[in-house]
Description:
Elements lengths: L8 E4 L9 H15 L5 H6 L5 H12 L5 H15 L7 H10 L5 E4 L4 H10 L8 E3 L12 H10 L6 E5 L2 H9 L3 E6 L2 E5 L5
Parallel strand pairs: 1-2, 1-4, 2-3, 4-5
Antiparallel strand pairs: 5-6
Helix pairs in contact: 1-4, 3-4
Pfam family, one: Hydrolase
GO molecular function: sugar-phosphatase activity
Organism: Litorivicinus lipolyticus
Amino acid sequence: xxxxxxxxxxxxxxxxxxxxxxxxxxxxxxxxxxxxxxxxxxxxxxxxxxxxxxxxxxxxxxxxxxxxxxxxxxxxxxxxxxxxxxxxxxxxxxxxxxxxxxxxxxxxxxxxxxxxxxxxxxxxxxxxxxxxxxxxxxxxxxxxxxxxxxxxxxxxxxxxxxxxxxxxxxxxxxxxxxxxxxxxxxxxxxxxxxxxxxxx
Length: 200
């Protein structure tokens, strides 16, 4: 088991890190892209995972030179996702870390999803009521890659940010962890890769 005894708090990203929910989001994005005349590129969207949906919509609108309200697209994407009624599974390597440290240190989730979406997903996988904190894009002024999401999670847990470690699956999320002065583990195809905060 990964030795995290140097840390006083653990923060997991949700989609693609703790919960295998990326597929449901991509299915919803594919529907919405067709409706709004945007090119659907799953790799492009996944690379931005962790950003709020309206932020991803802004990037796609700029890329495709299409004029729509990004928040309207984000709402349409959320409604499409709800209609899909996706039931994801937990991701085993990170969930084993969760289980090992549960009750030993406070554990939070910091996600770019809106609160209703995050609460539904985390409740479905049986994690919501076991968290010390949940911070979503609904709770912050600046989403990832800004560090506010993770900083707010640390404050809510009552842990000094530098004593927290983050688990993330995208560069956007790693950048957010480092912006919050936190070490990070990249959750990738080869397993967990340590990405220390700059200067650490």
